[in-house]
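To whoever is on call:

I kicked off a structure prediction for a single chain this morning and the downstream step that reads the tokens threw a length-mismatch warning. I double-checked the sequence; it's 102 residues and nothing unusual in it as far as I can see. Pasting both halves so you can look.
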Amino acid sequence: MSDLRAELTEILDEAEWEWLIPHVQRDAVVLVAPELNLVDVGVAIASDRIPSVEQWINEQLITKPTTVQIGEWNGNRDKRFHTLIVQPYVLVQEMVNPKMSI
């Protein structure tokens, strides 16, 4: 299990919205709430930890992006995300834009 965690931690990356569009079009993007650790979610999905994944889905902590979110992201092509590929999914978390901080 620790090998899987290490492997996923190593492939954790950032991506611009533009790069994610093809994955959204094939319905492969899963949006992970900021309160969850992206690697923890990746490990749970890759390890078929169904109870954990079901709980996160039920609590709407992992979801498919809504059309409203996609529209907002299309309007902000510089939007960036933390990303983790766990085939066949691309797990993403929105990054806070420091320019928009008050």
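Update from on-call: the warning came from a stale cache, not from the record. Cleared it. Sanity check on the structure: The radius of gyration is 14 Å.
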